[in-house]
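pipeline stage [seq->struct] | target=Bifunctional 3-phenylpropionate/cinnamic acid dioxygenase ferredoxin subunit | organism=Microbacterium pumilum | residues=109
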Amino acid sequence: MTAQRVCALSELEQDSAIRVEVDGVAIAVVMDSAGDVHAIGDTCTHGDISLAEGFVDGDSLECWAHGSAFSLSTGKPLNLPAYEPVPVFAVTIDGDDVLIDPAVTKPTS
């Protein structure tokens, strides 16, 4: 599988997230406060909640329902009630295109 265009970079706003789906995989595409773009699994591991509807705080994305925050770089939960990480996907920026390959995850070490 190859990386697919999921949105335009100009569609993203700082400190916000959007939900996209690539080959049946729900992904939250996030622009953090530094302007860096991240892609993590969109479903909170504590409940079946879209993380893209949550809150971006620095380098984390917080689930609006129960408050678990996930690291945008590792996918690891930063607080309870979630204790399982979400996948983190490699992002490529090509001009104004944001590309993601849902088959390529970044290591979470």
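stage status: PASS
auto-comment: The mean pLDDT is 94. The two ends are 24 Å apart (CA to CA).
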